Fold this sequence. Notes:
By secondary structure, the chain is α+β, with helices and mostly antiparallel strands. It has two domains: 2-169, 2-Layer Sandwich (Uridine Diphospho-n-acetylenolpyruvylglucosamine Reductase, domain 3), CATH 3.30.465.10; 175-284, CO dehydrogenase flavoprotein, C-terminal domain (Enolase-like, domain 1, 2-Layer Sandwich), CATH 3.30.390.50. It has helices at 9-18, 31-36, 75-78, 83-86, 88-95, 100-105, 108-114, 121-128, 145-148, 219-228, 238-251, 262-280, and strands spanning 2-4, 23-25, 45-48, 58-61, 66-70, 131-136, 139-144, 149-151, 154-155, 162-169, 175-180, 191-198, 203-209, 216-217, 235-237, 282-284. Strand 6 (131-136) and strand 7 (139-144) form a beta hairpin. Helix 10 runs antiparallel to helix 11 (238-251) and helix 11 (238-251) packs antiparallel against helix 12 (262-280). The chain is globular and about 60 Å long.
Amino acid sequence: MTVAVPTTLDEAVRLFAAEPSAMLLAGGTDAMVEINDGHRRPGGLVIALNRVSDLRTWRHDAERRTLTIGAGVTYSELMQEPIATLAPALADASRTVGSPQIRNAGTLGGNLGTCSPAGDGLPVLSALGAQVRIVSAAGERAASVDDVMVGVKRTSLKPGEMIAEIVLPVLDGWQGYAKVGVRNAMVIAIASACLVVDTDARQLSIALGSVGPTIVRCPEAERQLAAAVDWAALSVPSDALDEFVGLVSSASRPITDHRSTADYRRHAVGVLAKRLARRAFTAGERRS
């Protein structure tokens, strides 16, 4: 195979336009597992993106209240300040990824490009309503992250398109991520969830991982809990919290595989949703 190592985004785009079947390699933490297991055999051109400085930067626009993260920013960087304060759930998710070596190599753009429903960063991007900047030789376009993720390891990216940046809103309100695995570290999620609270808009969102062909949103549960919250006290009645858990579990679409059963996954996302909601809101009895 031939390996190209561009140093600018324009150069990477030109290389990809000339050979759209080329394999884009960021951190390689997903790709090398597939190659080592014999599930993938790259042929022709491999475009290594780790030296493209345009993909390795991030910026915070305080006026617009946005955080723009280059596709090549690593999990280790996402765990650090000030990103950890600007996007706490993303930092939470990054801390659960693999080992320090994997977090130093793996990237947010690679996580989205691989588009595994177990990807730790993806429920966070969905819950935050992230926008994705996509570039190609034909120009650039923006798409919501939910429109980019279309199935198990399938995206809506067209031949020659690559992810350049991911734009997140910077919100006031609690947010967090949690997952369940067969052990406490170095594990692929059996089920995961991200809850994001927007106190300004008095809205919340929850996104689930590993319980569907792609990330699952729970709009009915979101509306139900937001309506039940006492936004002045940031509390929610216990019965409303129980109803929320049921709606979240019902929204999931899990399968049984070698890592877990569908029934366990459905139960697990409900437990995760309840834990996250309890961290975000004080639970109490309904007031008369």
